[in-house]
Write a structure and sequence with these properties.
By secondary structure, the chain is mainly beta. It has one domain: Lipoxygenase-1, CATH 2.60.60. Helix content is 10%, strand content 40%. The strands form 2 sheets. Strands 2, 3, 4, 6 and 9 form a 5-stranded antiparallel β-sheet that branches. The protein has a 4-stranded antiparallel β-sheet with strand order 5-1-7-8, with no helix packed on it. A hairpin with a 4-residue loop joins strand 7 and strand 8 (108-116). The longest helix has 14 residues, at 2-15.
Length: 141
């Protein structure tokens, strides 16, 4: 009887086993003197035209630091690439914006936005600012 209960216990444990989740940590550093609106987008293609927002827009207040976490498995099926769109309601007069993915295993910072100096209210994307904004492969994050 003891072997049966032990076997039953092991079977129940495996049925209710929590899957291991992988997280993608995105770090936002707003060194400007204005609020910045950021939309994280994903796509199956390496272009920005056929993309979808991964969540609601994020508002970065002036001179702030923010970290968000995405659960990779939520998007694994359809996202191959990730990037951001950036815009402001009022143009900053100084400062820059950095956004990157932080890989905890290697402590690597993978840039999505690198030292972007926004001075207008236009929407900035990897297409408008290719030397400062980047589309990154999602699977490698």
């Amino acid at each position: 009887m003891g072997g049966f209960l032990k076997s039953l216990k092991e079977s129940l444990k495996s049925m209710f086993k929590t899957p291991k989740l992988n997280f993608v940590r995105i770090i936002f550093e707003n060194y400007t003197d204005a609020e910045i609106r950021v939309v994280i987008k994903g796509s199956m293609f390496e272009t920005i035209e056929k993309s979808s927002p991964l969540r609601r827009p994020i508002i970065l207040y002036p001179e702030t630091y923010k970290v968000i976490t995405l659960i990779k498995e939520e998007f694994d099926e359809w996202i191959r690439y990730i990037f951001v769109e950036v815009s402001c309601l009022t143009p900053p007069s100084k400062g820059k914006l950095d956004i990157y993915v932080f890989k905890e295993e290697t402590e690597e910072k993978i840039p999505l936005v690198k030292s972007l100096e926004v001075r207008d209210t236009e929407t900035h994307t990897p297409k408008t600012d290719p030397d400062k904004m980047f589309v990154q492969p999602f699977q490698q994050l």
